[in-house]
Amino acid sequence: MTFSQIKINNPDFDIENCRTYHYKNEDRFQLNIFFIEANVNIIKNEWKRFSKMIALNYQNAEYMSSSEFDRWNFYIVYLLNESIPKELKAQIENDKFSSRKIVEDSYGNEFNDDVANRLIIKHITNTDLKEIVDATDQVSISEYIPKNIELWNLLTKKEKVIGAAREVQKEIVQKINAL
Q1: Within 10 A of 5 (CB to CB), how many other CB atoms are there?
Q2: Which of 39-48, 107-116, 126-135, 142-151 is least confident?
Q3: pLDDT for 73-102, tens place per residue?
Q4: CA distance 35 to 79
Q5: Mean of the pLDDT values across residues 134-151?
Q6: Considering only CA atoms, which of 94, 113, 108, 10 is closest in space to residue 55?
Q7: Which residue in 5, 53, 94, 133 has a CA-CA distance of 20 to 30 Å to 20?
Q8: SS in 3 state form for the chain?
Q9: How far apart are the C-alpha atoms of 8 and 22, rounded to whole Å?
Q10: pLDDT, tens only, 28-69
Q11: Contacts of 168 (CB under 8 A, 6+ apart)
């Protein structure tokens, strides 16, 4: 799948300290991916607005085909150089309005077509799975070596401690405290 950058000619997307990119493939099944590059404060205050602008301008009969697949394959990738609070990241990524949202924080690269395609592969198409599997064809199994042999011996000495075996639990706790 090859993606090309589409020029955004809408002045609504011209926001100070923010860059917006639109990528689209020309395959039978189309995907639209928008990259929003901004800082935490802009993303925090404007992510819903971006989502609404994309829905209004691109998820309409004038722009899209009538394909159900095309309608469900809109993505917004928020790129931030700094870390974003986990709660905000979860709120953005779990929002179901108009498109799937992805937050790529602590992102330190200069954005270009190669980076865009790598992020599309990583988060959306997963077309690199064969290469990943091929690169991990050898699996090495080694014997487990515990860091604390005395604790490990206590845990493996008795059968599994389940439910009513309170005496065994007490014994293990006492021996751990004695270490």
Answers
A1: 13
A2: 126-135
A3: 889 999 999 999 999 999 999 999 989 999
A4: 7
A5: 73
A6: 10
A7: 94
A8: CCEEEECCCCHHHCCCCCEEEEEEECCCCCCEEEEEECCHHHHHHHHHHHHHHHHHHHCCCCCCCCCHHHHHCEEEEEECCCCCCHHHHHHHHCCCCCCEEEEECCCCCCCCHHHHHHHHHHHHHCCCHHHHHHHCCCCCCCCCCCCCHHHHHHHHHCCCCCCCCHHHHHHHHHHHHHC
A9: 7
A10: 788 899 999 999 999 999 999 999 998 888 887 677 767 777
A11: 158, 161
Q: What are phi and psi of 20, to 5 degrees?
A: -120, 135
Place of tokens 């011996």: 153
Q: How far apart are CA 77 and CA 3, in angstroms?
A: 15
Nearest CA to 31 out of 128, 127, 107 is that of 127
d(CA 102, CA 116): 13
Instruction: Give the residue among 110, 111, 112, 121 at the shortest CA–CA distance from 102.
Output: 121
CA atoms of 32 and 136, how far apart (whole Å): 31
